[in-house]
What does this fold into?
Amino acid sequence: MAVHRNKSRTEGARYAPCVRCGKEGETRAAHYCGFRSYAYGKGWGIKCDDDLTAYFCHTCDDDFSESSYHKWPDGSKDIERSEEFMHWINMTTIYINRE
It folds into this structure.
């Protein structure tokens, strides 16, 4: 799958609140890195498709980063984390479409 880049979506994060906690001023477009990320174009040194980003503050982004697997309960590290990340990506899409 070819990775699609969407500059307006990634740059738009700077002006939006975090979709998870509502914090403003440090929002970034966090690329999906969940259970099925490789199906969406992720690879070594390549982030997945830009349309699969959630507008997160630093703290929320850290909660879903690959280095934070240890924060999730045993047995749910992949599926629950991935499912919740997808939820926040959908909430970001709804936020963008309603602006």
